[in-house]
Amino acid sequence: MAWAATSPADKERFICIYPAYLNNKKTIAEGRRIPMDKAIENPTSTEIQDVCAAIGLNVLVEKNKLYPREWNRDVQYRGRVRVQLKLEDGNPCLPQFPTRKSVMLYAAETIPKLKTRTQKMGGNDQNLQPGEGGKKGKGKKKK
Questions:
Q1: How wide is the angle at C-alpha 17 spanned by C-alphas 13 and 22, nearest 5°?
Q2: 20 to 30 Å CA-CA from 77: which of 48, 71, 85, 130?
Q3: How confident is the model at residue 132 (pLDDT cuts 50, 70, 90)?
Q4: Which secondary-structure segment (H or E) carries 2?
Q5: CA distances from 31 to 70, 98, 134 (A)
Q6: How far apart, in whole angstroms, are the C-alpha atoms of residue 3 and residue 121?
Q7: What's the mean pLDDT in 6-11?
Q8: Which of 82, 96, 100 is nearest to 10 (CA)?
Q9: CB neighbours of 107 closer than 8 A, spacing ≥ 6?
Q10: In contact, 131 and 123? CB cutoff 8 Å
Q11: Residue of higher predicted confidence among 127 and 120
């Protein structure tokens, strides 16, 4: 038991959260770890990091890591967030987050409230005005 010899505060002992764990587009077989009704659409590692850092958890982001079950290699799906869950003595860092599942559920609940998420949703509605769009001139007309 090599893990027993290392402290829970070591970076290797931080819990890992991949964006696939919180993604409502994934099935459980594809890696989702929370219920579908609480999951969110396409979370990113930076969003998970922002949420966890805001509540005072010690967070590391590994940008080049990829979830093993993720077949899509796009940059959007890359990243792994490591979160310190326990102190040196084995007690939770924050009492409201004793387990990895509690951290994942909190992140999934809070990410939709982020400014980046709310601005994206509002920006799309303004651009879609009825009657606009269609063909646009691209230069000279053919004779």
A1: 160
A2: 85
A3: low
A4: helix 2-5
A5: 8, 22, 40
A6: 44
A7: 75
A8: 82
A9: 17, 22, 43, 47, 48, 51, 52
A10: no
A11: 120
